[in-house]
Amino acid sequence: MTTTADTDHSPTNNTWRIVLNPDSGSADHAERVRSLAAERGYTVRETRKAGDAATFVSEAVSEGVTRIAACGGDGTVHNVVDGLGRADALGEVTLGVLPGGTGNDFADNIGVESIDHAFELLESGETRRLDLGVADDELFTNSCIAGLTAQTSAETESEMKQRFGRLAYVVAGLQTVREFEPLRVEIDAEGASGTDAERWSGEALAILVGNARRFTGAGGQANVEDGLFEVTIVEEMPTSEMLTEAAVQRFFGGETDRVTHLRSDRLRVTSHEREQIEFSLDGEMREHHDLSMTVRPKALAVVVGERYDPSP
Ligand SMILES: Nc1ncnc2c1ncn2[C@@H]1O[C@H](COP(=O)(O)OP(=O)(O)OP(=O)(O)O)[C@@H](O)[C@H]1O
User: How many helices (H) and strands (E) does the chain have?
Assistant: First the structure.
């Protein structure tokens, strides 16, 4: 079998194919990316619509390209990684990440700080193998979220981000809590090694499944090489208990009887209603009635920044 290290050292493969979303974020990164790529002789393919990233990945793989960089926000990274999975190329291709989105959570979690920093890393950064999540048959890098925060996870205001840090999406979610119908679900989780399987049944405000992203404490990067999801289930509760900043910190910061934390590599969410549930996979919205999630351990070879911590 060809390893990533083997392909990395082949002189013929010492170049990158960049999949660029020119309209992500504030859409002011594209010119710089084109010019830095041209200086280095990298080919750039620009997405225009949903589906383009996967098409470009599939084309690159069939041409024998072994280094593909995603430039955009978390949605672009998501689509490139899922495209790699669909092209059955996760074993042969190394991923680079160039942060050009509104939220660049995945780039942040792997220590990639800016477009310029990312270009340096493409030349000389360390490659590590990270876990991926699979939701039915779709890969995800950061997280899979259902409930009141799913819709708002991609829409958080930057001012709120400054005030609340990584919990901002939760606060944004709380503002819509009055209109939110809780999810009536059953959640079955395989226990992490040595612990029992768990079943949770009830009305949930949010189900947060983190791969690279942590939802407890101050949030931020999770351990993304441990083969496990970090799962947080927030139970339906009276809005009066939630609508304070202090409560937000408390609910997500530690154990309360309204919040369940577990670690698992296999999870199934089943709705008790007829309607589908909306899930945010790295910020991309999907609908499912039932959804199974599993970890694919160390499936993705990706170039990380110096700040990346294998066990945060
Ligand atoms: N040229 C384009 N114009 C508009 N949408 C695009 C274009 N190319 C791709 N898309 C769509 O944009 C979404 C990805 O956006 P992405 O997440 O990268 O940026 P963002 O939303 O600005 O950033 P973030 O998710 O980090 O907040 C995908 O759903 C993709 O299908």
Answer: 11, 15
125-134, 153-162, 239-248, 277-286, range with greatest mean pLDDT: 125-134
CA 238 to ligand 1 centroid distance, Å = 35
Taking CA atoms only, the protein residue closest to ligand 1 atom 24 is: 73
Q: Which two tokens stand for residue 72?
A: 């955009």
Beta bridge partners of 250: none
CA of 49 to the centre of ligand 1 (A): 8
Domain 4-124: CATH architecture, name and number where available: 3-Layer(aba) Sandwich (3.40)
Looking at residue 60, the DSSP 8-state letter turns out to be H
Closest CA to 282 of 212, 181, 207: 212
196 Cβ neighbours under 8 A, 6+ residues apart: none
Q: Is the pTM of this model over 0.80?
A: yes
pLDDT band at 7; cut points 50, 70, 90: very low
Q: Which fold has domain 140-296?
A: Tumour Suppressor Smad4 (2.60.200)
Measured from the CA of 75, which atom of ligand 1 is nearest? 17
Q: How far is the CA of 20 from the centre of ligand 1 (A)?
A: 10
